[in-house]
Amino acid sequence: RGHTVVWHSQLPSWLTSGTFTNDELHALMIKHVTDEVTHFKGKITHWDVANEPLNEDGTFRQSLWYNQLGSSYIADALRAARAADPAAKLSLNDYN
Asked: How far is it, in rounded angstroms, from Cα 5 to Cα 28?
C-alpha cells in the first residue's frame, strides 16, 4: 500500500515557502502524483492518494493544497493517480 501521495504535512520547504500561481502549484501536484504512481505501477496496487484532508468536524483542513487550489485538489489528485495506474485501488485516507 502506498501511503501517502498528497498530504498537508511533511512538505519540502521549497514548496511551502515558494510563491506559485494556482496553475503552477496544480501542475506540481499532478506531476508528483503521476511520477510517484507511475514509478511504482505494478508494485504498489493500492494508494492513499489524499491523506487527512478533513478536520475532525468534517470541514476541509486548511493546507497549502486546499488554500490555493480549493477542494478540487482531491479529485484532481485521484484522477492523476487513476491515469497513471488504471488498475490500482485508490483511497482518500483519514484517521477519523
From this structure: 12
Residues 22 and 66: their CA atoms lie apart, in Å, by: 11
Phi, psi of 50 (to 5 degrees): -110, 130
Model confidence pLDDT, tens digit, residues 52-75: 999 999 999 999 999 999 999 999
Residue 62's pLDDT is 96
**Which residue is listed with cell 477542494?**
71
pTM: 0.94
DSSP 32-83: HHHHHHHHTBTTB-EEEEEE--B-TTSSBPP-HHHHHH-THHHHHHHHHHHH
Rounded Cα–Cα distance for residues 95 and 67 (Å):
21
Whether pLDDT at 96 is above 90: no
